[in-house]
Structure formats: structure tokens, C-alpha cells
Specification:
Layout (H helix, E strand, L loop, with lengths): L6 E7 L7 E6 L8 E10 L2 H7 L9 E2 L3 E9 L11 E3 L3 E2 L6 H4 L13 E2 L11 E5 L4 E2 L6 H21 L6 E5 L4 H12 L3 E6 L2 H9 L4 E4 L4 H11 L5 E6 L6 H7 L1 E9 L10 H4 L5 E4 L5 H14 L5 E5 L4 H10 L5 E5 L2 H11 L2
Parallel strand pairs: 11-12, 11-14, 12-13, 14-15, 15-16, 17-18
Antiparallel strand pairs: 1-2, 1-4, 3-5, 3-9, 3-18, 5-6, 6-10, 7-8
Helix pairs in contact: 3-4, 3-9
């Protein structure tokens, strides 16, 4: 680790309900056997970061923020066999699963529900808003050559979250999926994934920016939720032969979003709840009388995440990003996020070489 500096810049939560603080902190050097040390190229802002700042997640402070990161491997733990120095990596969120519980011993797609893991990057452990970060190699993924660092960072949470929801929905080509919150960071990826899977995609949003992004991301039909529940449900029924969606995915925190998601789902269909508002409220007639199965979904497993990355490369999936250059730009990013005008994902280009690459590609 001779070329790795002893100190690095990091954006940290040092006090709840306060802005991030940019600090010089020691560069992590202690790697467990399965760990990787990444030189962070790009890190992304997620809705959960706001929950961490608010103290909702029980985060020990100080904590380096962001659980969406991509970077280059600069050091590996003693037992790492699937990665080498120089590899391009999408950071896994989970650290050090126990390996012995029912979830760890169960199906691959459920292993990330381990309750005895050491923690989650950017939530209970230091994350990606830093020049270097430690990740668990068993939870991380190789980035395909066709996928950029700027695309891979948001996929580390937003991508694997909506991908996991689509996998749980269990739909096949030709069936219909409704995405409530289709024009957000997760939603616009869901529209692209679903369309590439051969699904009929109905996107619901309540912002002009969101409706535009959902349409641009491949939604066959976009519906403005601001017209009210009754008209929104009617519009969905009109494009589904009066049946409703085969499955609906809710990625909106709006108070009535879960109820709307159930209302537009066909009898006996699945509503996948991904959004994490303080309370999920659904009137009982919407799911009991119509036999709607409400399923919670967190993220995707490492195996599913690798398949997602390969799918992104194969189908040319793109992430609508709003890049900011350098960790010092985080206040500008959070201001945009809080304005309600953010379309897609806000990202920080951390590494100077990557800054040059992104500027060259964008012509700026």
C-alpha cells in the first residue's frame, strides 16, 4: 500500500440533522481476509442517506456517508480469490455476513437478509463519500467493460433495489408492471429494466420531471398521479383491459402511494413495496377484498447484482445522472436533491482521473 496516502478526504455525518462535514481522516488499511480496498471513483446520493442524517437508522457517529460506490481495487485481503488489484468494482453494501444463519445457509437470493452481519456501508459503517473505502469482496461485483464507473455507482443500491423488486415480482414477457414513482432514481431504472425484459410498463409519478424521465426511460404509458386516485386507477384499467397490473412496484414515499399501488394491481396480484416511509398505509379493502399480496423487498443478492450488471451492459441501460466534481461539491448536490427538482441520480465524481474522463465524455 505504498502509494496510498495516510489520510484522505471524507464527507461524514458527525451530528444528526446537520449537513455533512468534509474531514481529513485516516485512510483505512486494515483488511479482513475477504475485504477489498477501493480507490473510490464515483459515489452516489440515495434517499436512505437522508434517513441516516436524520438519525433514523441508528448510525454510530461519525460515519462516512453513501452506500452507492464504484472504484478500482488497490489492495485485497488474504483470502480474496475473485478480485485482483486493478479490477473495476461496484461496491457491495453488506459487510461480513455470519455465514451460519438460516438466511446465509438458504437460497442465494435471500443471503443479504442476514441479521448477524457486521453492518451496511454508509448506514452503520463508513461508506463511499471518501477517497478510499473498504468493501466485502463476497458482496461486491466486477463492473463489465461496457459499464462506466458513473453508471455503476448508482446501481450499487438504486439498481440492485429495483432489480430485486422486479425479480420478486416474477413477471414474464408480455405481462404488465406498474411502477409508482417511475420518474425517480429507482423508478427510471425500473422502467428501462422492465421494458428490456419485454414487459408492458406503466409509469406513475406526480412531478413533471418524473413523468418526463419515466417516458424517456421507456415507459409505454405515463400517468400523472396528481389527477387523483380515482382517475389514476381508471387510466391504468384502461390500458390493462380493465384487469389491472400483473404486478406493481412502489418506490414512492408519498403517504397514499402504497394504497394506490394496490388499487392498480389485478386481483390476486403482487404489490412489491420498496419505498421506506415511516409507515406504510393501505386501506384493508385494497388488499384483503382483492387478495393483493404485499411483499417487502430490500436489495438484490450478489449473484442477482452481477446478473443485473451484465443485463445493463447487454441492453445499454443508462442511469440519468447529475454529476458534481469533488467531495467539496456535496453541499450543492444535497441542495439539488432537497429542491425536488432532481431528475435521476445525483453523483459525486471523487477521483481526479475520473473527473477528466467524465468531462471529456460530456464535452465540458
Amino acid at each position: 500500500m505504498g502509494d496510498i496516502p495516510q489520510k484522505m478526504l471524507a464527507a461524514q455525518v458527525v451530528e444528526f440533522k446537520k449537513p455533512y462535514t468534509i474531514n481529513h481522516i485516516p485512510t483505512p488499511t486494515d483488511l479482513s481476509p475477504h475485504d477489498l480496498l477501493l480507490k473510490v471513483k464515483v459515489a452516489s446520493l440515495c434517499h436512505t442517506d437522508g434517513m441516516v442524517q436524520a438519525g433514523v437508522m441508528g448510525t454510530p457517529l461519525p460515519c462516512t456517508a453513501s452506500h452507492e460506490g464504484s472504484g478500482e481495487v488497490v489492495a485485497v485481503g488474504s483470502d480474496v480469490v475473485d478480485f485482483k488489484v486493478g479490477d473495476r468494482v461496484m461496491a457491495g453494501i453488506l459487510m461480513h455476513r455470519c455465514g451460519h444463519c438460516k438466511e446465509c445457509q438458504g437460497p442465494e437470493e435471500l443471503k443479504h437478509y442476514c441479521k448477524k452481519a457486521k453492518g451496511h456501508l454508509g448506514v452503520t459503517l463508513n461508506g463511499a463519500f471518501a477517497e478510499y473505502m473498504v468493501v466485502d469482496g463476497r458482496e461486491s461485483n466486477i463492473i463489465p467493460p461496457k459499464v462506466s464507473y458513473e453508471t455503476a455507482a448508482p446501481l450499487a443500491c438504486a439498481g440492485i433495489t429495483i432489480w430485486g423488486g422486479l425479480m420478486r415480482a416474477g413477471l414474464k414477457a408480455g405481462e404488465t408492471v406498474v411502477i409508482v414513482g417511475a420518474g425517480g432514481g429507482l423508478g427510471h431504472l425500473g422502467c428501462q429494466f422492465a421494458r428490456a425484459m419485454g414487459l408492458l410498463v406503466v409509469g406513475i409519478d406526480a412531478r413533471d420531471e418524473g413523468l418526463d424521465l419515466a417516458k424517456a426511460s421507456g415507459a409505454n404509458v405515463v400517468i400523472d398521479a396528481r389527477q387523483g386516485k380515482e382517475k389514476t386507477v381508471s387510466d391504468v384499467m384502461q390500458v390493462t383491459n380493465n384487469l389491472g397490473a400483473d404486478s406493481t412496484i412502489n418506490v414512492s414515499d408519498a403517504k397514499d402511494a402504497a394504497a394506490l399501488a394496490c388499487a392498480v394491481t389485478k386481483l390476486h396480484g403482487n404489490m412489491i413495496q420498496i419505498a421506506q416511509p415511516p409507515e406504510v398505509s393501505i386501506p384493508f379493502p385494497e388488499f384483503i377484498f382483492r387478495d393483493i399480496r404485499v411483499l417487502g423487498s430490500l436489495i438484490a443478492s450478489p449473484g442477482q447484482s452481477q446478473r443485473m450488471l451484465d443485463f445493463v451492459a447487454e441492453h445499454g441501460i443508462t442511469v440519468k445522472t447529475n454529476p458534481f466534481f469533488g467531495l467539496q461539491e456535496i453541499p450543492k448536490l444535497t441542495e439539488l436533491a432537497h429542491s425536488g427538482k432532481l431528475a435521476g441520480k445525483g453523483v459525486i465524481i471523487v477521483d481526479e482521473e475520473e473527473m477528466r474522463n467524465v468531462r471529456k465524455e460530456s464535452g465540458s
